[in-house]
Design goal:
The radius of gyration is 25 Å and the shape is elongated. The protein has nine helices and nine strands. Helix 8 packs across helix 9 (about 230-270). The longest helix is centred in the last third of the chain and has 42 residues, at about 230-270. It has two domains: about 5-230, Spore Coat Polysaccharide Biosynthesis Protein SpsA, Chain A, CATH 3.90.550; about 230-270. The protein is an alpha/beta fold. Strands 1, 2, 3, 4, 5, 6, 7, 8 and 9 form a nine-stranded mixed beta sheet that branches. Strand 6 (about 115-120) and strand 7 form a beta hairpin.
Amino acid sequence: MPKLSIITVNLNNKDGLINTAKSIVEQTYTDYEWIIIDGGSTDGSVEVIKEYADKTDKLVYWCSEKDGGIFQGMNKGIEKASGEYCWFLNSGDYAYKNTTLEEIFSYNFDYDIVYGDLFWQDGDKGTYESLNKNKRVYEKSYWIKFWKSLPHPSSFFKRELINKIGGYRTELTIMADKTLFMDAIFSYSAVCRYIPVCFSVFMADGISNHPSSVEKIRVQTYLSNKLVFPKMYRLYNCYTFLSYYHKLYRKWWKKRKKIKHEKALTVKKETA
């Protein structure tokens, strides 16, 4: 069994796939397998995959067929994986340098989830983000906030744990990765640890970063939190219900006081 299964999902991103592939095959650490799930690309991506299938024996499985989106593709990759850990490095994202895996595994860990730093690439601008500040990953409040999550390109996830959870919830087309982390930590008591290594360069051009996705993210964040924290959301719904009627009562009370005050003024004027 290899230590790591690298899973790459791609759809019509030939140039991004080439960058991802180069960074994987150039790794100095070799105890890994590589799996590519292509969603039926028509831009030459399949030819790139075939080229790498001939070039390296690390690419143990690939397919190209229409599917239900990125998270269904990632679930298909998990089904074919045999490594102790899974690393989701999708097309366009790439390992930070060719010694990245060697540096990560030099820490000799056995945690459920390990995560490190990330380099965000947004067009010509790049930002190095140290995730060591995310020390509140075991607090519900950290995850319930709008954007908070651990990025999958900078995280290794034990395959056995992913299978226990049941993989990604494909109905959450944007927030399934966040939900998987929350399920692991709060439903399965997963142990997370930070490693001071930059895992990857993450291209900030995905669907979750598109302005048109803001409303969908808001809705799916609510659904995600509701799925993982059902008891808390029952209390929240009760609180919302009571708050609503409390506001109605306050509104009625203020109106009643105003009417009484106006009547009192009228009577005062009439008796003056």
